[in-house]
Amino acid sequence: MESIKDAKFKTAIVSTHDCVNPSWGGGGLRTRKISLELVQRGINVYLVAPLEEKVLADKITNLHISPPSKKYSSLLSTLRFNLQMFIKLSGLMKRTDLVVIHNCIAALSIPLLKKFFPVRFVLDITDIHTKYIYMENKVLFNRIAAPFLEKVEYSIIKTADLVIAVSSAMKELLISKGVKEEIIKVIPDGVELKKIPSCKEEGAEMRVLHLGAVDIQHNVEVVLEAVSSVLRILPEVEFLFVGGGRGLEYVRKKSIELGVESNCIFTGKLPQEKAREYLQSSLIGIIPRRSCPANDLVTTVKIFEYWASGTAVISSPLKAIQEIAHDRINILFFDGSSEDLAEKIIFLLQNRDFRRTLIGNGERAAANFDLDKSAKNIVDFALD
Asked: Per the domain annotation, does 176 fall within a domain?
């Protein structure tokens, strides 16, 4: 049998735990782009992922798998998901010479299957998911299980033939955990530049947007805590929270407790294409994740969507975001407190010229993060 290095790849498995079509977030969209790019190279693709609709393209075989549930035990749900994955992949591996998995949640069975099937395993990582378990410190089982689960995640990463990291901060972490530097390539997230609306609606200059999920790692509460301070100076400002998540109901209730619910709009969970429409409704976008080991590794997709849509960005100073953004040039960093966030929001709302400069620089920065180019770079690396 020819070696993996010398093989001409004919068939690939591409998989993720995120819904790919429609995509509900960056992971599903990134996976879909990788699949389509592989097809462009003449490679047949088995797309094994949550699929509410088929990805319609020649050479793609759509294989739906139920996603992990976020309503119940995330650990049990992940194990159940990977049992489905093992069953699906076991029947496909003998027909496959390349496996591309987005994030370790979908890769639990790959180290075992690799022992029996000589495939190239490419792992595309945009999150180290076990890092988020440490943030759920109220759950005793999570605190006990987290160190073991983290070791499992890194052991999966070490079995990959090639690893794609979303930031240099992530690459440095992986190297410190024993992943070989020569198999890692940094390829940032990106944005579908042609699909992002750039025209703003009337009234956008008095709206502030949080785009994306509302879970513990997103720290959306700090935005709500800033609202009352903003309203004391500018009572007409509206805050848009576009997305669902386990923390959404808590955030809704908190807006009522703080007496700011009349200035807050919550859309609930939306497909990514629908959520993007709200980029037309605001001139300021917030990334409130607090700096911590889990969050410092990621850039988030929303920064690129904000930039591309002509939306001024205020963000906490996450390490990965600092790699690609420059304070007061194409982003405005706040120190993590609600007081400083409120001051930065008021400053941007009241300073049109500075806001325009920030927006213009952000639009130019977005041009460097085209998701189609990222997908091409990922596939180039995977096939090299």
From this structure: yes
